[in-house]
Amino acid sequence: MSGALPRALEDGLRLAMPFVAALLVGAILLAITGRDPFSTYAELFNEALGGQSRIAATLTAATPLIFTGLATAIAFRAGVFNVGVEGSFYLGGLAAAWVGFAWIGLGGTLQMLAALGFGAFVGGLWMLLPGWLRARMEVDEVVTTLMLNFIAIGIALWLVNGPLLAAGSANSATPMVLPEARLLRLIPPSTLNAGFLIGLAALVAYGVWLRLRVGGFENRLVGLNPRFARSVGISVASVILLAIVLSGVIGGLGGATHALGVVGRFSEGFSPGYGFTGIAVALLGRNRPVGILIGALIFGALTSAGTTVQLFADIPLDLVQVLEGTVMMLAVVEAVRWARRRRAVRAVAP
Amino acid sequence: MMLDNVLHAAILATTPILLAALGGLINRQAGIVNIGLEAMMLSGALAALIAAHVSGSWAVGLLAAAVAGLVSAAPLSILVTRFGANEIVAGLGLNVLIAGLIGYLLSDFYGVSGTLRLMPVPTLPRIDLPFIAGVPVLGAILSGKDVLTWAAWILVPLTALLLTRTRIGLRLRACGSSPATANSVGLSVPNLRDGATLAAGALAGLGGAALSLGLVGLFSEGLTGGRGFIALAAFYFGRNRPWPTAFACILFGFFDAAQIRLQGGGLPPELVQVLPYAVVILALTLASWRRRRGPSPEP
Questions:
Q1: Suppose A92 and one of A200, A230, A255, B261 were both cysteines; which one would form an S-S bond, judging by CB atoms 3.0 to 4.6 Å apart?
Q2: What residues of chain B lie within 8 A of the CB of A279, using their CB?
Q3: ipTM score of the complex?
């Protein structure tokens, strides 16, 4: 007896359930603190999607999450629990900013491409150690990648306070990147930039890779059943290593587009936890390209709306964090399966 | 005395990490990796400050800290043990949720963003030992420490006893090492794991109080500054055993206290802060290397 839920509907439910629950938690919090949840949510919705400039802001906020969500998903597919995308994002952003302001004389598009490429390279390089440790030494990647986040942030902070600090700058930031290294703004004056398109392209490439290339199939197989994969002659270690490094590459590319597209340099507090939100995005999206896009858009909408609502309606931006945390906690709850099992039990019982 | 100053500061800096790490290792022994220690410390730190200010008693503050830590641990535990949530993701989510909740409530109730100062606050009393205080090194280690520091170090052997010598300790460890077996002999694995997680929450909450009431006398959103993750690093380094974990905590507390003083010595503080995390990766690698090099089982 199987619950007759079509898979798409079940995926949709899985995506919607944590959000509905989070909105409930948020509503309770708003009500307790004497605010009207309905008008607040209406305002959030309006701020996220009301008009071209608001939509552009939402897409901008979604862009880093597309990268971090995708980066996490690539590793998840291979059964690797990479929680270190935040670190790759940080270092990728710093590396790209460095190429953007220090490699003078490349000129034109080459400057931008070199910066993007170097960001992606450094992001991937950063995952080489945990990847190798996991693939060859069987060291648990959850702890190593988690710890590497703090190390990456520490190194980036040190560089940006010392060797790479902009001359005459009091706050921890690199110099601005050269104008030719900046990513194209799609709808000026909004900060929506070509990084969003690169993210979409990466999602499409991921979808194609999963379906067509042998590599994608191997990656999935290793994630689903490593012993079987090994017995049919797949080198599990190299698939795992590839997945985690690729995950770092995408994370680094995300940081690079953020530095070149939005911030224009690298500064302290470069990422407010995009890597961690990316975990929620990947889980909600079930590691599928369209799911990741939807998840990134929803979180992006929350962030962009939260920022303006804080400014104009005196509702602390922290509300968005509350919603986001709740979604993360509930993202992996197996409520749908749980409900189906209960139905199945009832159906069997006389 | 330079050395005495560093030792004194290092012992005080160890207390919050040690309390959280003891909770985390009990949790880990029961089979759950607690990534939410940071959140539990943060809520404990805030609750301790408010309760101590309102009641005028640091003891009430400590009680509130333990309760706050426990309450923040509850949703994490229930989601993991009853609803099949992944402990890592749920723990990371809890950190985001609690940080957001605290920020929201601070700006709503106190109209402050980031930092809460309440006057007067009864901070934790420090105990000066009459004769030992004057002895170099020993005095710096033992004298002038607050009650939580003493409690934390008394808890180290007690935790060891709890885990190895008591019925409940053996049951907790059974849940961790073989949940299926524990279940088959009639133990309720979810209940025991809930208990371990709640205990971890209470201890981490006290660790937060050691920061807000013991060290600084105020609350800020960045007060814990990743100490929940340092605690995680400590019990991974100590392989979930109380004494080695306590040793790691002392080491990390020493880094913490020394980083301010090392700034003159050329080592950048940002890199000193990174050391505990690097030490854990090194420890895990060495452990795996030893395991793989060790005698292979007979064919």
A1: A255
A2: 89, 92
A3: 0.88
Q: What is the DSSP string of A320-348?
A: HHHHHHHHHHHHT--HHHHHHHHHHHHHH
What is the distance of C-alpha B141 from the center of its chain?
Answer: 20
- Which residues from B are below 8 Å from A157, CB to CB? 270
Q: Coil, strand or helix: which one is A196? A: helix
Tokens of A171: 């706050």
Set of chain B residues whose Cβ sits within 8 Å of the Cβ of A158: 268, 270-271
Where do we find the tokens 């049919």? A232
**Torsion A73-A79-A85-A88 (CA) sign:** negative
Contact criterion met (CB < 8 Å) for A329 and B101: no
Q: In angstroms, what separates the C-alpha of A290 from chain B's closest C-alpha?
A: 21
Structure tokens at A62: 């979604």
Chain B residues whose beta carbon lies within 8 Å of the beta carbon of residue A150: 226, 229, 273-274, 277
Say yes or no: A28 contacts chain B, CB-CB below 8 A: no
Dist. CA B58–CA B125, nearest whole Å: 8
Q: Which residues of A touch B284 (CB under 8 A)?
A: 133, 139-140, 143-144
Which residue in the block uniquely carries the two structure tokens 């759950």? B32
Per-residue model confidence as pLDDT tens for chain B (299 residues): 578 888 899 999 999 999 999 999 999 999 999 999 999 999 999 999 999 999 999 999 999 999 999 999 999 999 999 888 888 889 999 999 999 999 999 988 898 888 999 988 898 988 888 888 888 888 888 888 899 999 999 999 999 999 999 999 999 999 998 888 998 888 899 999 999 999 999 999 999 999 999 999 999 998 998 899 999 989 988 989 999 999 999 999 988 887 766 655 667 878 888 888 898 899 888 888 888 876 554 43
Give the pair of three-digit tokens for residue B286.
């060495």
Q: How far apart are CA B40 and CA A6, in angstroms?
A: 40
Residues of A in contact with B270 (CB under 8 A): 154-155, 157-158, 161
| Interface-testing mutation among B28, B92, B263, with chain A (most A C-beta atoms within 10 A) | B92
Query: Which residue does chain B place closest to A329, by CA atoms?
Result: B90
**3-state DSSP percent of chain A in helix, strand and coil, to 5:** 75, 0, 25
Nearest to A266 by CA among A125, A165, A117: A165
Alpha-helical regions (H) of A33-126: 37-49, 52-77, 85-102, 108-126
Question: How far apart, in whole angstroms, are the C-alpha atoms of residue B252 and residue B46?
Answer: 23
Let me know how many helices (H) and strands (E) chain B has, helices first. Answer: 12, 4
CA distances from A77 to A82, A210, A242, B42, B274 (A): 11, 10, 12, 34, 30
Dist. CA A119–CA A250, nearest whole Å? 9
- Residue A150 is nearest to which of B99, B277, B289, comparing CB atoms? B277
Map tokens 């906020």 to a residue.
A61
Across the interface, of B88, B100, B270, the residue whose CB is closest to A325 is B100
